[in-house]
Specification:
- The protein has 98 residues and is mainly beta.
- It has one helix and five strands, in the order H-E-E-E-E-E.
- Strands 1, 2, 3, 4 and 5 form a five-stranded antiparallel β-sheet that branches.
- Strand 3 and strand 4 form a beta hairpin.
- The longest helix has 4 residues.
- The N and C termini lie close together (9 Å).
Amino acid sequence: MKPVVEPARLSTRFDFEVDAPFSRTALLFGPRAEMSWAGTQWRPVFLYPWPGEDIEGAVFTVARGPHTSIWVNTLYDVAGAACNTSPPSRISSRHWST
């Protein structure tokens, strides 16, 4: 059976500059650390590791409205001045009927 609505894929990217040392600011942007400043909509649920930590390889979800996004920290090396989180994959929690 063909879905009522064709699946879609969306990818976004952004860059920003902060006028402070990377070693100080990078620690603010791990999924767990962001909970201290990002507001009530940022509540990651860690799939790996458990309990959740801001580490390379961390996998977590964030729910927003009817969607849940899956995120992966592909690189988290504060000492080496390199961090990257994969673009989120979004899974809809809506159920379509025919």
